[in-house]
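Ops channel
N.P.: pipeline sanity check, posting one input/output pair.
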């Protein structure tokens, strides 16, 4: 902006000099013309400098700058001269400025900035409450509207290890004495699937501070949240109440408010812009997280006798459904509006569920059958009735973990990556085989859906 101001002064001086040389002897100088136009440009540039240099205004960060435009209007000049990264505290002023000067590009960049950092916007009452309903919807839609939704997966370490004497629980197992130097822990990465190349690729490294073993995982507003889990091993193992989140639009990991209660083997569900942490080992309690207040609040506990360990939970039509694990074939429904739990009809299959997802008002529960593989049961949430949908032969009846993308349910374990398509009332597995998850490490394979930006994110901090 200083350069713009200096250039304007030079142009004014040049015009004044040229007018003086071109004047005929005795001719009066004209007060109108290009001199007044250039003076107006200079005034606008000075106004912009004052606006940008206010305390709490735009942050100056080194980075690639857009090429200068030859246009002389203040809106174009502002859009060109502004730094690439801006302060969220100035967004409201920038939107007002863009509207006043007719700069849609500047407004779009500001909306994109707020969308990229949605959790900060939601948690700032002075900013979020002053946004209109249309502004809020636009910011939310930009979270998933500027990239491509992809299938991702994360391997969570298993809670149990197989020995000759059977299953041994990690937290309660005695620690073996260390022999020689202890090798450093292996890095854990989020992986994403590229359907065109039929390949899996690492996306980002999970911070070593995240207790992955026994944590809950889900996505909300295109953030990946990891909550709870077990930190340490053996006699030193403790449950965690910490909550981490990954933002794919900025490639930044951060933490939000910890849960009220430490949990392991919990289920994390997103519904209507809120997170629900359900149960856990020997826990019936449930709590809810609101990003707008950055606070967890207690909700109605699970019914007595359910003992929800290794259960499955999913949101559908405004309610939360829980099944599987030690619940076996039982199906529970939670109503957030009433804050109550009730029992749904039992399924016809009394097999243990490996996962459950929601699609089109139906619940699809994937059960394991010996000698068959996976059997899919479908529950109609309107009529409350169960029906058999399809089956998938598996060489090894390992549990399937599922995620929904469009009208396709991706079903994963360490041996296969299958697709279950729902279209016009029909539901069936596709014959095309996809590349299985590349890592053969033991653990729980947890799929999820994220929308990645079209290019590599440039933002590294806020």
């Amino acid at each position: 902006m200083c350069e713009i101001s200096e250039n304007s002064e030079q142009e004014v001086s040049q015009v004044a000099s040229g007018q003086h040389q071109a004047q005929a002897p005795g001719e009066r100088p004209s007060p109108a013309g290009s001199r007044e136009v250039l003076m107006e440009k200079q005034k606008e540039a000075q106004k912009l400098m004052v606006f940008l240099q206010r305390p709490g205004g735009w942050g100056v960060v080194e980075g690639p700058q857009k090429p200068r435009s030859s246009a002389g209007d203040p809106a174009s000049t502002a859009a060109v001269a502004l730094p690439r990264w801006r302060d969220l505290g100035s967004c409201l002023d920038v939107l007002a400025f863009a509207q006043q000067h007719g700069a849609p590009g500047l407004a779009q960049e500001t909306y994109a900035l707020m969308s990229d950092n949605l959790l900060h916007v939601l948690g700032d009452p002075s900013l979020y409450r002053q946004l209109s309903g249309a502004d809020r919807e636009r910011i939310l839609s930009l979270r998933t509207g500027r990239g491509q939704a992809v299938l991702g997966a994360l391997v969570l370490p298993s809670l149990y290890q197989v020995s000759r004497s059977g299953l041994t629980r990690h937290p309660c197992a005695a620690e073996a004495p260390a022999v020689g130097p202890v090798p450093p822990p292996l890095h854990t990465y989020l992986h994403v699937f590229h359907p065109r190349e039929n390949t899996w690729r690492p996306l980002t490294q999970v911070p070593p501070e995240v207790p992955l073993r026994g944590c809950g995982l889900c996505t909300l507003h295109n953030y990946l949240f990891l909550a709870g889990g077990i930190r340490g091993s053996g006699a030193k193992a403790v449950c965690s109440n910490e909550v981490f989140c990954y933002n794919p639009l900025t490639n930044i990991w951060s933490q939000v408010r910890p849960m009220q209660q430490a949990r392991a083997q919990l289920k994390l569900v997103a519904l209507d812009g809120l997170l629900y942490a359900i149960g856990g080992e020997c826990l019936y309690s449930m709590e809810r997280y609101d990003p707008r207040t950055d606070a967890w609040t207690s909700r109605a506990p699970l019914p007595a006798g359910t003992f929800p360990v290794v259960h499955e939970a999913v949101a559908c039509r405004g309610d939360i459904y829980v099944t599987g694990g030690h619940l076996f074939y039982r199906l529970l429904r939670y109503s957030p509006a009433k804050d109550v739990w009730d029992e749904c009809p039992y399924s016809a299959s009394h097999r243990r569920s490996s996962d459950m997802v929601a699609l089109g008002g139906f619940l699809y529960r994937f059960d394991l059958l010996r000698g068959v593989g996976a059997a899919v049961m479908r529950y109609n949430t309107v009529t409350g009735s169960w029906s058999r949908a399809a089956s998938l032969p598996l060489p090894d009846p390992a549990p399937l973990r599922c995620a929904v993308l469009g009208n396709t349910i991706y079903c994963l374990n360490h041996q296969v990556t299958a697709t279950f398509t729902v279209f016009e009332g029909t539901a069936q597995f596709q014959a095309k085989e996809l590349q299985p998850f590349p890592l053969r490490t033991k653990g729980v394979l947890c799929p999820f859906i994220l929308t990645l930006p079209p290019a590599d994110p440039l933002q590294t901090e806020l």
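N.P.: looks fine end to end. The two ends are 24 Å apart (CA to CA).
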